[in-house]
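seq:
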Amino acid sequence: MVWLVCVALPEELPLALPDGYQKLITGVGKVNASIALCAELSTNQKVDGVINYGTAGGFMEQHKGQLLPVAKVLERDMDCTGLGLAPYVTFGEHEVNIETQNASGVICGTGDSFGPAASAYDIVEMEAYALAKVCQKYDQPFYCYKYISDISSDADAHTQWQANVARGGEAFLEVLGSHPHAS
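struct:
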């Protein structure tokens, strides 16, 4: 059996994973992440669960350079409020957040752009909500960890991300070695 570690880009986690873990490069964005994980789960019957690791933009300077566990994810660019729904909710859904298996952590807003701050979430990135949604569909446990590579509201957030994209890998490997999902 194996735990899938979903990462958008190889640059985010250039390190080898320990035994019992398999890296799945999903590509950037909700659609790419969904396609990659659905394809893997529909053909690989030996998956114990899914762990999403990657970079994220933060809004608080003290989070920059930190690896944070994610407790909840939401789809920050879903807006059907004009149709009478709550922010971040679409038809057929009732909950804003999907909870991860992490016991505690931040709320991550997933969207297909470098995102602005909002009171509903603490950090921003582009894949976690989609991966969590797929895990719900396939009845897979889902954990999520994000390395805060940049301050999303800064004009040079993209430059910060480029400089820091690979810096959280070692901290993430430490989490793998000490977390309940470790074999």
